[in-house]
Amino acid sequence: MGDSQTLIKQLNQLKPWQLTAVSAAFTERMLPNFMLFSKLLNFGDTAKVRTVMDGVWQHLSGGAKMNFEVQLDHIDSNIPSLDEFDMYGAMPAHDAIVALYSTLTCILEEDASEVLSVISLSHESVATFIEVNQADTQMSDVDLMRFISTHELMQDEDAFTEEVFERILSQEHPDKAFIQSLRTLAENQGISNIGISDSE
């Protein structure tokens, strides 16, 4: 991820629909992390979460209207407590639902800082996954940073970030075909930002 000052500058230049689209893309890509956790631990309401995420995409393409203020409570109740679930899998699941909550807040408040927090959540999810699951515990901080930044998953994350911004910045209006293509990119054939799918 580029430094946050540059990112904030880019985000501040975006229209409200573009902010929501960026946030939606990152959230969609993180969602399998929650879906798999939910399935394995029988936690939360995946159907509700999916419906709300679909509602965000419909909102972007000018489709059916959803009351996003009401949905905030539904999404909030699906955030797994990291105190209650003392396991690694709860962290990316937690991040995915917090990202969806921020996406709804972005729709309601048109706030670039919400989008920045979603991008950061996604980036940190990937970094933490690499550190917890694949890094050598003997690594120095410098080696760990290098290992994370050059890891295939982080390279994918950076490429995804670039691609999303490239597409958003070149699009004046949120027509249906554009939103659908952005959604397809974010869905990534069901593979999340940390390389898992909920069909595992």
Word description of this protein:
The protein has 200 residues and is mainly α. It has one domain (4-189): YP_001051499.1 fold like. The chain contains 9 helices and no strands. The protein has helices at residues 4-12, 16-41, 46-60, 68-76, 90-109, 112-134, 141-150, 152-169, 176-187. InterPro entries: DUF416, YP001051499.1-like_dom_sf. It comes from Nitrincola nitratireducens. This is DUF416 domain-containing protein. Pfam families: DUF416.
Q: What keywords describe this structure?
A:
about 200 residues, DUF416, mainly alpha, globular, YP_001051499.1 fold like, single chain
**Fold-level CATH name:** YP_001051499.1 fold like
Number of beta-strand segments: 0
CATH-defined architecture: Up-down Bundle
- Low-confidence segments, ≥5 residues, pLDDT <50? none
- Tally of contiguous helical segments: 9
Radius of gyration: 16 Å
| Category by helix and strand content | mainly alpha
Strand fraction equals: under 5%
Tally of separate domains: 1
What distance separates the N and C termini?
Answer: 28 Å
Mind describing the biggest β-sheet?
none
Protein name: DUF416 domain-containing protein
Organism: Nitrincola nitratireducens
InterPro entries: DUF416 (IPR007338), YP001051499.1-like_dom_sf (IPR023381)
Pfam families: DUF416
